[in-house]
Each structure stands twice: as C-alpha cells, then as structure tokens.
C-alpha cells in the first residue's frame, strides 16, 4: 500500500541499534513516514480541529437542545459523528472539555450526554433561504407560487398540499415538543421538518443517512414514517437512493447544479488530500509506461536509497477504492407522487441520462 501512494508515504532507513544478538553486525531498518506535503495537510487538519473545538461543542449543545429530555445516548451520537465533523475520540475529549455546556452521565441504556446549560443564542432556527422570483418589479404575486428546484414536476394534489403547508406559521423546533401539537397534524409535521432541517444544517456536507435520523425518532419527536415525510417535502429535502441505504440532502445548502454553497474548511483539506492521491497515481502511471518503454524516470518519491526486490509490491493498477471513499451518494432518479392516500411516495429510475437536480434543456449538465 505504501508504494501505491508515493505522494503520501515515503520510505527511509535508520541504523539498526546494537543488541546482544547483532552487536557485531551492521544493518539498517526500513521505516515509513509522511511526505512533507502530506505532513503539512495533517498538521492543518490537527490545528483546524483544535480551533473548531468550540464550534463543534455548539453543535452537540444544539442537538441536546433539540431532544425532548435534553439527553442523548453517546452510542447514537456516534452515528452522526463523522457527518458533524467530530473526531473519532470526541467521547473522551470533546465531551469532557466543555463541562459548562454538557456532561456525561450514566443511564440504564448506557452512557449519555446531558445538557448542562441552555443557550438562548443557539436556540435560533435556520433562516429561510431568499427566494429569487426573477421579477423586474418587486411586488406581491397575484397567484401563489411554490419554490421548487428545476426539473421537479409534482402532481396538482401534492403542490396544493405543499402550498397549504408553507402557509402555516414557522414553528421553532427548540422551544416546542411533539406533545404541543395533535398527532399527525400539519403543525406536528411542520415541527418535524424543522428538526430535520436543523440537524442537516449542522452536517459538514449538509447530508446524512436516513437510517441515522431514525435512531433519534423518540428523542427528537419525529414520526414513525420518517422517510415518507422527508420524501413528501422535496422543497426542503432531496432523497438519494445510491448505495444500500438512502441519504437525505438539505436542498437549500446546494445550488442548482448540486454544489455546496458554503464549503467547510475540513472539506478543503480533504480535497487537497485527494489531489495528492491523484498525483501519486499519475506518477505510478508514468513509471509503468517508462518501464514498458525501457526508459528510466527520476524517482519522484525520494526513495532512491531504498532497495526493494521486484516481487515486493505490484505497481499495476490496483482499485483500492480510495478515490471513491468520499463520493456523494446520489442516484439518477426522479420523484413521481401518486394521487393515492398512501403517505409514502414512489421513486422511479429514468436511466443513466436522467436529470433530476437540474432542469437545463441544453443537455450539458450532469445529474446532481
């Protein structure tokens, strides 16, 4: 694996320390370390995590403020940890570094994170995104309009439902609970959509798995048919079916071409790491072509002093899936809502040429 990523790892040798068994022998030990470029990225990520400690603590505090009992099991928060930008050791470091915000307590179900201080400045829901109607004169519209992304066509009955839903007053998910509204009412669904919107707004990539949200149905007061509710509101959420599990995206966090409007700094470092990986693969391809043509290229990974037998590693194309590790989960699907009384909605595949996030007619844009 080390030889597959010459821009990430480099080999070097150190003298072998004398021991009673090899006191009269001299030799060298083969060691591995990060390249200067990879080491610089690692230091940037470490400094970023330290600087964002307070920001990440605010995310956990807001999650606790959304819960009904102001307490969440750590075993459930782990599912959202990577999407929130939390480090793998957040349970031992971040949760204990801010005793003024929350604390770890023991419950009959396991260790949980409990809210210590309610911050009214954090209990503010996300602002509604501005709507650009493309009017020359800003004046009230004569007819009601529904703000949907391009290329999304809904049945008349579904559009009427969403218009009626948007006419309801905004409900703050922090100051209300599920018991404040009748079950299966539009007000309860309005609050549930607000909770999901707040949680997705905390995510680094404004997306997560629907299965992860179902872990918090009881704590956040979400309906049992959570997926059906999310699919029912395409003006707020976008559901992708790529992979074994469905993902939900926050629509307002992306532009018409599916690009994040606000990119997190950790994503910038990740993109730089992927660029290093791609550069290493380019170097390996050039070496392979040079070996086939009988020429010699300079060793770009500074490993000239390391002697390795030809059979120690395979320099051929090896699909390790590293470049697909961070791929977004999307799918060439389109919503199609039926007029039956079933709450859930069906999704139909339209093939590889389907465009459902953008509705450009020139055919140059790719789906999602």
TrEMBL record:
One of its GO terms (molecular function) is RNA binding. Residues 1-281 form the PORR domain. Pfam families: PORR. InterPro entries: PORR_domain, PORR_fam. This is PORR domain-containing protein. The lineage of its organism: Eukaryota, Viridiplantae, Streptophyta, Embryophyta, Tracheophyta.
């Amino acid at each position: 694996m080390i030889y597959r990523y010459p821009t990430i790892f480099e080999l070097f040798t150190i003298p072998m320390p004398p021991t009673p068994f090899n006191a009269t022998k001299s030799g060298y030990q083969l060691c591995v370390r990060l390249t200067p470029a990879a080491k610089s990225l690692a230091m940037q990520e470490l400094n970023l995590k330290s600087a964002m400690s307070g920001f990440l603590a605010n995310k956990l505090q807001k999650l606790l403020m959304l819960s009904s009992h102001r307490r969440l099991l750590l075993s459930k928060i782990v599912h959202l940890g990577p999407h929130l930008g939390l480090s793998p050791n957040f349970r031992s470091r971040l949760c204990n570094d801010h005793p003024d915000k929350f604390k770890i307590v023991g419950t009959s179900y396991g260790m949980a994170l409990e809210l210590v201080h309610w911050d009214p400045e954090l209990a503010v829901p996300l602002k509604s995104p501005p709507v650009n109607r493309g009017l020359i004169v800003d004046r009230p519209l004569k007819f009601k309009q529904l703000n949907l992304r391009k290329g999304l066509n809904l049945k008349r009955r579904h559009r009427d439902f969403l218009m009626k839903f948007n006419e309801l007053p905004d409900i703050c998910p922090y100051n209300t609970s599920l018991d404040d509204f009748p079950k299966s009412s539009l007000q309860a669904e309005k609050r549930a959509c607000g909770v999901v919107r707040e949680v997705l707004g905390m995510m680094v990539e404004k997306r997560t798995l629907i299965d992860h949200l179902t872990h918090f149905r009881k704590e956040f007061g979400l309906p049992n048919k959570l997926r059906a509710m999310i699919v029912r509101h395409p003006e707020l959420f976008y559901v992708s079916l790529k992979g074994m599990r469905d993902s939900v995206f926050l629509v307002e966090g992306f532009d018409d071409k599916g690009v994040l409007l606000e990119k997190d700094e950790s994503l910038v470092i990740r993109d730089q790491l992927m660029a290093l990986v791609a550069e290493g693969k380019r170097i390996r391809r050039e070496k392979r072509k040079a070996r086939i043509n009988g020429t010699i290229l300079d060793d770009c990974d500074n490993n000239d002093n390391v002697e390795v037998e030809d059979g120690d590693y395979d320099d051929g194309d090896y699909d390790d899936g590293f470049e697909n590790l961070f791929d977004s989960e999307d799918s060439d699907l389109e919503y199609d809502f039926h007029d039956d009384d079933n709450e859930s909605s069906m999704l139909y595949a339209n093939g590889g040429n389907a465009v459902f996030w953008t509705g450009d007619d020139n055919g140059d844009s790719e789906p999602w």
